[in-house]
């Protein structure tokens, strides 16, 4: 679910309306429930929530019950129920469709890949990687980016200059190439992929927060806090960052989608998690050689990526509309 | 400050950014495990041959010496030589591949901007009716689709099943007709070049198109709700004139920002598109370099990508100033 806590939503609200809104406890509660109501009423964001829920459920199922989807079946090469490599049917089409390798059956609803592995099971395991990297990398990038952006915007001067040039240079290297460079330097592992994608996420949030801070910095209550001798750290973490919560929440949701796309692209180029661990991008890379004999192999993983990313985009758009109803229509 | 002064100042700001880029790339590349010299000389080489090769490429020096040397060399435009391509200058390799990628980028951005701006305006004009919903759903799918998958689908449909367009390669429109298969005249070359360009441009342009459509629509909507537009409406100015005269230009600033941001996405996307369509451009070059652990080539291509991007952003910033004369040249980043 959406982690909209009462207090932060309230501060976000008062900042948005220029401090005019009464940010007491009661209006905070009503504001949050108003956002939630807006979200529920918006059918697009509801669809987004359902998709994300489904994807998360699938990803969790594979960790809770390994027997439900046989991991060996997904990961091992040349696997077949009888454990007989020669007996497995490769490049089988989905159920009810026929190609030169045979007719698809319910045993493999979406067909099999070039090694006779079940495509559905591999898709299910691919979900885990995509969701893991998408969520964790976004979380790390958001946290670091937010702090850097807040410090940069709050202090200004040379601190701002140095941090901004650094962030700009991170931005200047196309992020796909940056992650590839990081992964070839430190290893093609899941952890490194997460770190790489988080680094490319940092500038997005730094820019966002910095521009927010520049406007919040001049607000009366921040001036009042300064005048009252409140420490800088306290002002940044207690006042400035919570005040920029709403746009960060929207951007994070959208960024999860972007990061899932980056991870898929990496795997497609051969720089993601390494085989036999299944990932969506890697499945697409494998499918390239078999596009004529079994195009279905190329279609399913792409649909999985598309559906997941659409889910996060719908929710992100819905959140933006709910938090700031003027932004759209 | 004058426009020229502004451009000059922005050019100066580029210097520290590129210095950072060079440093980050250098540190990363030198953390790569494995020995490029060994790959070069092959497993059969003896210790003396390895040492000789190491000295030849300056790899026997300590890291900081190599860094300072590299910086000095890059400052004079020398990016070293490529081990993988047998000692060819990195810049030579880059300039051989750069036109291919630039052609691909130019063509896909033309496609993206050319379709997105009318589509976005059209959607804003028809807000909340069927056309608008169609445009919104299309652009939502566009920003959510992996570009390389679009490429694979296009190849399946148009190259294999439809047999309409070539599935791989790219021909330069200025290529010599004698070097192009089945071409006898300049016109043949142009037609072949165009047919090769269609699928990769759609592949690379889809995301840009969708992103620009979305921002164009919301930006137009915002402007159309402004007081001065309402006033114009109240005076009986036709909706057409409002769109053309009052709303269009003012709505383009956020659009430009998004186009600027999309450039870095597109450079990464070029790597994917070139892989899908087997195009020998910069993207393919960098992947080859990484696979072959060709340090100099990886660094050179990465830095070049950054230069292309930074210059692109500069162009966007200057366009910004042209579109909106109110933007102060003295201020910070023109957000």
UniProtKB/TrEMBL annotation, chain A:
Coiled coil: none
Entry's Gene Ontology BP terms: transmembrane transport
Region (Disordered): 1-26
Name of this protein: Peptide ABC transporter permease
Origin superkingdom: Archaea
Principal location listed in the UniProt entry: membrane
Membrane topology per record: Multi-pass membrane protein
Residue ranges of domain ABC transmembrane type-1 in the record: 127-316
Keywords of this entry: Cell membrane, Membrane, Transmembrane, Transmembrane helix, Transport
Keyword Membrane applies: yes
Pfam families the record matches: BPD_transp_1
Transmembrane segments annotated in the record for this chain: 47-64, 129-154, 166-186, 192-209, 248-273, 293-316
Family under the similarity heading: Belongs to the binding-protein-dependent transport system permease family.
InterPro entries: BP-dependent_transpt_permease (IPR050366), MetI-like (IPR000515), MetI-like_sf (IPR035906)
GO CC terms in record: plasma membrane
Compartmental location: Cell membrane
From TrEMBL, chain B:
Cellular component GO terms held in the UniProt record: plasma membrane
Annotated membrane topology: Multi-pass membrane protein
Start and end residues of each ABC transmembrane type-1 domain: 98-320
Signal peptide (UniProt feature, chain positions): none
Keywords in alphabetical order: Cell membrane, Membrane, Transmembrane, Transmembrane helix, Transport
Transmembrane residue ranges: 12-32, 100-122, 134-161, 189-212, 253-277, 297-323
Keyword Membrane: yes
PROSITE patterns per UniProt: ABC_TM1
GO biological process annotation, one example: transmembrane transport
Annotated localization: Cell membrane
SUPFAM superfamilies: MetI-like
Pfam families assigned: BPD_transp_1, BPD_transp_1_N
Top-rank taxon, per record: Archaea
Family: Belongs to the binding-protein-dependent transport system permease family.
Name under which the protein is recorded: Peptide ABC transporter permease
């Amino acid at each position: 679910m959406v982690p909209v806590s009462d207090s932060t939503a309230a501060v976000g609200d008062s900042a948005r309306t220029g401090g005019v809104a009464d940010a007491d406890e009661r209006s905070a509660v009503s504001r949050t429930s108003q956002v939630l109501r807006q979200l529920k009423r918006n059918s697009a964001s509801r669809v987004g929530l359902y998709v994300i829920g489904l994807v998360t459920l699938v990803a969790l199922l594979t960790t809770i019950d390994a027997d439900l989807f046989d991991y060996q079946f997904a990961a091992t090469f040349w696997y077949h129920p009888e454990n007989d490599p020669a007996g497995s049917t490769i490049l089988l089409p989905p159920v009810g469709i026929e190609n030169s390798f045979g007719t698809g059956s319910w045993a493999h609803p979406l067909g099999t890949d070039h090694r006779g592995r079940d495509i559905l099971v591999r898709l299910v395991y691919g979900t885990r990687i995509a969701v893991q990297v998408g969520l964790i990398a976004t979380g790390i990038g958001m946290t670091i980016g937010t702090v850097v952006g807040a410090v940069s915007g709050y202090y200004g001067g040379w601190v701002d200059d140095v941090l901004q040039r650094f962030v700009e240079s991170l931005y200047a290297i196309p992020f796909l190439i940056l992650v590839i460079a990081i992964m070839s330097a430190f290893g093609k592992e899941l952890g490194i992929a997460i770190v790489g994608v988080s680094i490319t996420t940092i500038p997005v949030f730094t820019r966002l927060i910095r521009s927010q801070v520049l406007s919040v910095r001049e607000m009366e209550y921040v001036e009042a806090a300064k005048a009252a001798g409140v420490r800088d750290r306290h002002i940044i973490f207690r006042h400035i960052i919570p005040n920029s919560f709403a746009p960060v929440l929207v951007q994070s949701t959208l960024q999860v989608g972007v990061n899932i796309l980056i991870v898929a692209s990496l795997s497609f180029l051969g720089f993601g998690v390494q085989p036999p661990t299944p990932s969506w991008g890697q499945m697409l890379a494998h499918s390239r050689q078999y596009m004529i004999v079994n195009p279905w192999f190329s279609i399913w993983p792409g649909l999985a990526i598309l559906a997941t990313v659409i889910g996060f985009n719908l929710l992100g758009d819905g959140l933006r509309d709910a938090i700031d109803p003027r932004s759209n229509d | 400050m004058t426009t020229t002064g502004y451009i000059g100042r922005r050019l100066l700001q580029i210097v520290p950014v590129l210095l950072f880029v060079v440093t980050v790339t250098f540190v990363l590349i030198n953390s790569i495990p494995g020995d490029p010299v060994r790959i070069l000389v092959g497993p059969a080489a003896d210790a003396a041959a390895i040492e000789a090769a190491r000295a030849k490429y300056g790899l026997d020096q300590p890291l900081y010496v190599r860094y300072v040397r590299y910086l000095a060399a890059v400052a004079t435009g020398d990016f070293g030589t490529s081990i993988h391509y047998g000692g060819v200058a990195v810049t030579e390799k880059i300039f051989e591949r750069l036109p291919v990628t630039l052609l691909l980028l130019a063509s896909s951005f033309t496609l993206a901007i050319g379709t997105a701006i009318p589509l976005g305006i059209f959607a804003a004009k028809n807000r909340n009716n069927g056309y608008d919903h169609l445009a919104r759903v299309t652009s939502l799918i566009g920003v959510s689709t992996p570009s390389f998958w679009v490429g694979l689908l296009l190849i399946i449909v148009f190259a294999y099943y439809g047999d309409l367009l070539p599935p791989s390669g790219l021909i330069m429109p200025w290529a010599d007709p004698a070097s192009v298969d089945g071409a006898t005249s300049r016109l043949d070359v142009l037609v072949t070049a165009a047919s090769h360009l269609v699928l990769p441009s759609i592949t690379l342009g889809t995301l840009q198109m969708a992103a620009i459509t979305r921002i164009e629509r919301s930006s137009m909507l915002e402007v159309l709700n402004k007081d001065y537009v309402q006033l114009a409406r109240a005076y009986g100015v036709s909706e057409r004139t409002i769109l053309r005269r009052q709303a269009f230009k003012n709505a383009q600033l956020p659009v430009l920002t998004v186009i600027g941001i999309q450039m870095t996405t597109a450079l990464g996307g070029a790597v994917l598109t070139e892989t899908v369509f087997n195009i020998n451009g910069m993207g393919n070059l960098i992947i080859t370099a990484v696979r072959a652990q060709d340090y100099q080539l990886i660094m050179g291509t990465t830095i070049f990508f950054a230069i292309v991007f930074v210059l692109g952003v500069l162009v966007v910033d200057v366009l910004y100033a042209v579109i909106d004369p109110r933007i102060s040249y003295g201020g910070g980043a023109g957000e």
